[in-house]
């Protein structure tokens, strides 16, 4: 597939090379490609400058959000959840219409300290906000319930656990589910329409506390039944 | 242990006989024991009248909330989450002080239709509200993340999954964890202090959607790692 990964942080840098490795065409979207490539210092999260990272990541092209999104079959929203709607606006509705948006972001609010709280919850979700803002796209919420390394490489743990898909379009969920299985995921539960993203976004608070309790982000939820 | 189970609904009626079966002394607490025993019709959830049920449940005594709580080593809050603080007030601080309160309720709000939303979330939890209201008790939040039948009989599914405990007192969490293992649970994760109950209470929205997607409440979360 022709894919765009919006976001140059840890999540984008983990998903993009995995898509390339699996044979998909990948363009990473950023606000200002020249500025992104001009950076020589690690970012706030300690990630290497994008240019240095990209030089070691074959098959990854960098472009502005709009250019990355244009013509993509599937767009991965790997941006900070608080910035996602702004980023999608920059990508432009004309470049989003007709595509599948795989929304893997969480609407986290770090402004009140740690652990972060959720910007929306229970009566709305980021997935729904994106679907409402771009009704001509088919939004599928998934992958937001586990660490980036496990998203892309579920075989890091012996039982990779369960993933969830939420979305209004069955074909789009089937496409995403097939992609998740290419990644190595085995158990994918279709929760229903995009409103069910409220449930998976609300997993983040317990995920954050489990990270603290277990001392590692290498864990996942599995639904035993 | 001398235990009290507050609440005569499905959850109380599942936990109480399991405690009795395991050799614990059990008193079920209700608002008005005479009125509870006088009922001859099924309740709103379709449960048999309490008296008919109790007659078939050896070892279960019914008492008012205060009498049930008095002298108990461990009190199980098996009431509707929206009514829990009112019920505990009826039990009386003098009867609660010094005990462990095992809070298995969820603060669900059914007033806005289905699925229910949460009365508090993310910045507070029912577990914290109880701990703040009764600082002389030791509140442990647990068991609120699965169906009543699986709480008491985890062997209904081949892998019973994971339970979580949240609380400020390590001894109280150890007592509860030992009790959960008597029930048949195997994997119990100590998430930390009672504020971590925010995480497990916020599991309910995805639990409700999983129930819809799977068509059965016989499932549980397992943390694979």
UniProtKB/TrEMBL annotation, chains A, B:
InterPro entries per UniProt: NAD(P)-bd_dom_sf, P5C_Rdtase_cat_N, STEAP_metalloreductase
Coiled coil: none
Domain Pyrroline-5-carboxylate reductase catalytic N-terminal: 3-107
Keywords: Oxidoreductase
One Pfam family this sequence matches: F420_oxidored
PANTHER family reported for this sequence: DUDULIN-RELATED
Protein name per Swiss-Prot or TrEMBL: Oxidoreductase
Native source species: Arthrobacter liuii
């Amino acid at each position: 597939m022709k894919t765009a990964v919006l976001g140059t942080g840890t999540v984008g840098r983990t998903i993009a090379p995995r898509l390339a490795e699996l044979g998909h065409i990948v363009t990473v979207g950023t606000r200002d490609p020249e500025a992104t490539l001009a950076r020589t210092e690690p970012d706030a999260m300690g990630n290497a400058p994008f240019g240095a990272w990209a030089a070691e990541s074959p098959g990854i092209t960098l472009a502005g959000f709009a250019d990355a999104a244009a013509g993509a079959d599937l767009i991965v929203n790997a941006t900070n959840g608080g910035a996602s709607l702004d980023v999608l606006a920059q990508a432009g509705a004309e470049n989003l219409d007709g595509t599948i948006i795989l929304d893997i972001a969480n609407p986290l609010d770090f402004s009140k300290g740690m652990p972060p709280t959720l910007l929306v919850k229970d009566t709305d979700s980021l997935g729904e906000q994106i679907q409402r803002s771009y009704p001509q796209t088919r939004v599928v919420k998934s992958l937001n319930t586990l660490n980036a390394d496990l998203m892309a490489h579920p075989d890091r743990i012996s039982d990779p656990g369960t993933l969830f898909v939420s979305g209004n379009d069955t074909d789009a969920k089937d496409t995403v589910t097939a992609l998740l299985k290419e990644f190595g995921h085995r158990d994918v539960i279709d929760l229903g329409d995009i409103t069910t993203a409220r449930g998976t976004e609300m997993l983040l608070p317990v995920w954050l506390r489990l990270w603290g309790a277990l001392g590692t982000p290498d864990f996942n939820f599995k639904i035993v039944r």
